[in-house]
Every structure is written in structure tokens, then in C-alpha cells.
Amino acid sequence: MTKKPRTVSNVVTNSEQLGHLARMLQQQQSLLEQIRRLLPAPLGQHCIHARISGARLILHTDSPVWGTRLRFHAPQILQAARDQAPNLSKLDVRIHLSSNIRPARKPLGSLPEKTATLVSQLADSIDDEAIRAALKRLSGTSNR
Hints:
Blueprint: H1 8-14, H2 16-38, H3 41-46, E1 47-53, E2 56-61, H4 64-72, H5 74-81, E3 90-95, H6 113-124, H7 129-139
Parallel strand pairs: 2-3
Antiparallel strand pairs: 1-2
């Protein structure tokens, strides 16, 4: 006789470690919903995750602009979250940009030739060895 396959929800709730993770996720979802209800409509939609770590409430948002707006509401948010964790004292806001909107890093280029020459000439007139060496590196003439 073959055993009937178990559902994923059955495995999650009956496994000690997975059950613990599921309960933590449920608590975080509950906290997030509580905070979203407290915030003005557009701001609540941009609060994407909430968790408690020690005495810190950590909120995740999808842009720096909304992160700044969340910080303005820190006192009200902390007060509401103290229902679940009475010892909260600090709000951390973290930004999670999706990979398709992250700005690409521009490769560092060298100075234009005229600017490099001027910086090198300036370096030659400096008495301090450390500053002279730094300017030479900047101009790209440190090995010339």
C-alpha cells in the first residue's frame, strides 16, 4: 500500500522548524498589516515588509522617497507596534529597489588629458609627499 502524498501546508505546520518559520512569517505579516492600516494610503502601499529584531522595528520599503516619509511617521509606528513588542525603541527603514530599476554603476574613467596635466603640474608644486602622491595618482601620472 502506497502512502498518500502530504500537502505542503501539512508539511509546514507539522515540521518543527518549518512550523516556527511559518509562525514568524505570520507574525510579520500581521505586524505589516497593522502598520499599513496606520499609515496614509499611498505610504502604506510602499511599506513592503516589517519585522522586529530586539528593540528595533525594521521596515522595508521600495524607494528612498517612501523611506523618508516612513521616518516622519516613526513615533506613531513605534507606538502601534509596541502592542506586539513593548520594548521597541528604534525604527530602522531599509530600501529594497527591484533589480530592474537599480541604477547601473558607471565605470570610473580617467581625467581628460588637459585636466590630468594640470593636476600633475599642481602635484609637482606641492611639498607634502602624501598629497603630491595622491594628486599624481589622480592625474594618472604616478608611474610616469
